Amino acid sequence: MLMNAHEARLTDLRKELQKRGLSGFIVPISDEHMGEYVGSYAERLKWLTGFKGSVGSAAVLAGDYSGKGAAMFTDGRYTVQVREQVSGELYDYEDVPATGPAEWIAKHAPKGARIGYDAWLHGIEWVEAAEKVLARKGIELVPVDGNPVDAIWQDRPEPSAAPAVPYGDKLAGRSSADKRAEIADWLKEEGYDATIVTALDSVAWLLNIRGADIDKMPVALSYVIARADGTADLFIAKDKVSSDLVQHLGNAVTVRDRADFEPALAEFAGKTVAVDPERAVAGIFHALNDAGAKPARATDPAILPKAIKTAAEQQGHRDAQARDGAALVRFLRWISEEAPKGHVDELSAAAKLREFRGISPDLKDASFDTISAAAGHAALPHYKVDEDSNITIPPSSIYLCDSGGQYLGDDSAGTTDITRTVWVGPGEPSAEMIDRNTRVLKGYIQLDTARFPLGTNGGQLDTLARMHLWQAGVDYGHGTGHGVGSFLAVHEGPQRISKSGGAFAGTGTPLAAGMILSNEPGYYKPGEYGIRIENLILTVPVEIEGAEGDWLGFETLTFVPLDRRLIDADMLTTSEREWVDSYHAKVRALLAPQLDGEDLAWLEAETAPL
Prior knowledge:
Elements: H1 2-19, E1 24-28, H2 44-49, E2 57-61, E3 70-74, H3 79-85, E4 92-95, H4 101-108, E5 114-117, H5 124-135, E6 140-143, H6 148-152, E7 165-166, H7 169-172, H8 176-190, E8 194-197, H9 200-207, E9 209-210, E10 222-227, E11 232-236, H10 243-249, E12 253-256, H11 261-264, E13 272-275, H12 282-290, E14 294-297, H13 303-307, H14 311-338, H15 346-357, E15 363-366, E16 371-374, E17 397-403, E18 405-408, E19 413-415, E20 418-424, H16 431-448, E21 452-453, H17 458-470, E22 481-483, E23 492-497, E24 516-519, E25 522-525, E26 529-532, E27 535-542, E28 551-556, H18 574-591, H19 597-606
Parallel strand pairs: 1-5, 3-4, 5-6, 8-13, 11-12, 13-14
Antiparallel strand pairs: 1-2, 2-3, 7-9, 8-10, 10-11, 15-18, 16-17, 17-20, 18-19, 21-28, 22-23, 24-27, 25-26, 27-28
């Protein structure tokens, strides 16, 4: 029945395209803010195709020129998932970056075709590249007036009406006025009159506001225009604005209706406006050009200062991690006792973890969809369990859980992200499982204890986490670390720890004191099991006797026991064993005061010295 619905939607879209004189249309996963997560009103790709992943796109031709006339584009993370969720009778499966929508259309559509796209959902650089690819085949890329998917989506949800709320200076550690002044100085230095801030977490950071418009990320749907004089305009739906918010923003911030954003761009005729091509849609560049303004491509000036956490934000993370650690201990003890009985499945495990996190009144949301992955599913690094894919956690297998929470208290706030891999009894894990997990652990420790000179970037550190796996002739396909926000996005740039290039554009960004990253090496055996160990780490200055220049290292923020059954102590060096014992001692000291009874007894047993 569900597949019939998607077939009907595809047919309706083709009729709508033909009505508009279009030969095809490209459907991205993004919204008008180019964010990782989108509101239900913007889930056009999911509604049309059934695909539930976080990265992907579709191309639909109005006529069946060749093949199926439609294609889904995903990268290697979703090779399995896309085939489970999207009908192969309706769509070709295409792998990115080997190909993309423009390349596929150039191959399948005839000369003279007019291919539509929504300029408020695509980045300008994608548009320019796609235009070149299609022009070589005599195909025109056409911005549409109104999205054709919206025209056929009869029960499309409305955007969230949740209010935007003040986020106190005590939590942020800096006032909005101070942040706006920093950006104003940058604008004057670069010769720009203003900048358009489109990323929702940048808007939230700049104005010290939060919201509830996107699941897993506490932001409000809005735009900001920040000017070189330190003033700013906030474009947001009027029903989301309270008198408290207006008072919090102050006289230097003018609140305007969200619907006025595009017309407001016409006010910059003859002026130079900084716009981030990675985070702002093509429609903004088009509107500025049409108005006679001069859009200058520049990175969002909030990105780097947002990544360098204030002392208040750093402490907020520590506090959130302490709450989170207690929840994880309760969960891991529960898994160790219940999963071997054979009645716990991936969905019920994820729900139980949410229940344990919810013991803290400060939990406001998860920070992303929990990756609750049993057996072969654990070998899919970005697996997302749903009713269709859900399986029982098999006894005598590996279970991987990657999860996080958004915590907001009166005095502190933070965002967590942690992965633990555990053995579900009865019996013992295989020698290979123990070997691979121990190599992952050794790589984790190597990166955690790294000392490096100021100016070092994440690409230069990435090998440390992989070296012990490489010695065994194995590797993992994802990055080793991403930035993390403060009661904001769980994935935050610009810093990354990863092999150079690819999706990790921030790999070359030098690490700076105050940056928070994940440390998450792994190993995945397709169809059998997967292993990942992930903690969050804070970049801090370190003192080295006799050192020349300034040096940095990492402070561990996440404290949850590691599964001892998957560690071969004989494979660890003396210093690595000492690291594990020291780490477990800190886990015990931090979490024991929050636990009692069987949970406390389990914690003490799991954190005993190796």
